[in-house]
Structures are given as C-alpha cells and as structure tokens.
C-alpha cells in the first residue's frame, strides 16, 4: 500500500506539467473552476475509475484536488489502498486560487454552488423548518436537533453525510458520456 503525500499549491504549480490532475469534486463544482488540465472524476465514482487511474499513475504522478483538500485526502487514501500512488493538493482549489494561480472554467459550463454552500443551505433550511414547525408541533424541534447533531458529528469526524446525499442529485452528477471520455483519456495517457 502506498502512502499519500500532500503538496502545497506553489509546489504543484511548479510541477503542474508532470502531474495528471484528478479533481474529485462534483461536476458542477468542477465546471465553476478547476486546476488547469484537471480531469473530473467525482469522489463517489472513484471506484469505477481505479483501472484508469492505475494506468495514468504508471505514466506519471497523480495529483488529486478538491475544493479544500478534504475530499482529495479521502480519495488519496482510497487510491493508496488500491496501490495507486497519489498526492493531494493542500487547501484544494481554494488555496490554489488564493495564491494567485489560474483556474480554468469552460465557457459553456453550467455553474453549480460548491458542495459546502449546498450543505449550508440545506442544513440551515432544515433547522429553520424544524424551529418553525416546532412552534405548532413540538416534536418537530427534533429535526433541528438532529441536523445540529449531524453538523457536530461532521466536524468531529471530518466527513459529511449530507454532502454525500447532495452529491447524488442530478445536477451534481457527471453525464455518463463525460465520465467515460475522461476514463478513456486517463487510460491512454
């Protein structure tokens, strides 16, 4: 089993041409801006991409990217378990852009809110719904308590069940043809 490594944006930028960059965010997030040359393989489709990623890793180093570095670290652990060496971009595309590096954004791409923003909207809406409904029907307050508990669990474990659910929504899914084309490109590189 290989050990994942972390690379800061300045190091990644200096070696960008040597990396095969894999962005594990949802397609809408990827379309909003990604590291130049990145291939979109959403985290929940990573298991499907393992053969293609193994082939790409033979040709060169893999750099796994997400918005903040959390999902890419998870992806690197999964890749390491499959004996595929990969590095994660510390701070993700957020740190990349903050340090002045360019993000590519296709002109025809539809923009979807980042996953963290989607989670905040849904969680906040459910808490307010629980409180409003709780004014008339007291047990409805449990919804707010459950969401609050889920957010605490998410912070402690550095995982997010709500993000996993939201990632399955149609606008966060890659079109099959796009993912298939990406996997073919990775296998032939």
Would you kindly provide a written description of the structure presented here, covering whatever features stand out?
There is one protein chain. This protein is an alpha/beta fold and 189 residues long. It is 54% helix and 10% strand. The chain has helices at 9-14, 27-32, 46-59, 70-81, 92-98, 115-136, 141-157, 161-166, 176-188; strands spanning 5-7, 19-23, 39-40, 61-65, 87-89. It has a five-stranded parallel sheet with strand order 1-5-4-2-3. Strand 4 (61-65), helix 4 and strand 5 form a beta-alpha-beta unit. The protein starts with a strand and ends with a helix.
Major sheet description: 5 strands, parallel
Task: Report the order of strands and helices.
Answer: EHEHEHEHEHHHHH
What share of the residues does DSSP label as strand, in percent? 5-15%
Instruction: Return Rg in Å.
Output: 18 Å
Mean pLDDT: 88
Poorly predicted tracts of residues: none
The span between the termini is 23 Å
Shape: elongated
Structural class: alpha/beta
| Contiguous helical run count | 9
Main sheet: which strands, in order across?
1-5-4-2-3
User: Which percent range fits the helix content?
Assistant: 40-55%
Number of strands: 5
């Amino acid at each position: 089993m290989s050990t994942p490594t972390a690379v800061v944006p300045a190091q990644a930028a200096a070696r960008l041409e040597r990396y095969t960059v894999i962005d594990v965010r949802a397609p809408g997030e990827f379309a909003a801006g990604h590291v130049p040359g990145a291939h979109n393989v959403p985290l929940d489709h990573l298991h499907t991409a393992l053969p293609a990623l193994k082939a790409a890793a033979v040709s060169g180093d893999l750099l796994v990217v997400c918005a903040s570095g959390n999902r890419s670290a998870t992806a690197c652990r999964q890749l390491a378990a499959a004996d595929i060496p990969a590095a994660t971009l510390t701070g993700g595309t957020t740190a990349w852009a903050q340090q002045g590096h360019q993000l590519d954004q296709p002109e025809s791409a539809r923009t979807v809110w980042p996953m963290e923003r989607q989670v905040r909207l849904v969680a906040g809406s459910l808490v307010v719904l629980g409180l409003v409904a709780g004014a008339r029907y007291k047990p409805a307050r449990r919804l707010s308590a459950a969401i609050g508990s889920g957010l605490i669990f998410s912070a402690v474990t550095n995982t997010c069940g709500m993000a996993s659910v939201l990632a399955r929504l149609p606008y966060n899914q890659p079109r099959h043809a796009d993912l298939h084309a990406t996997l073919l490109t990775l296998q032939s590189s």
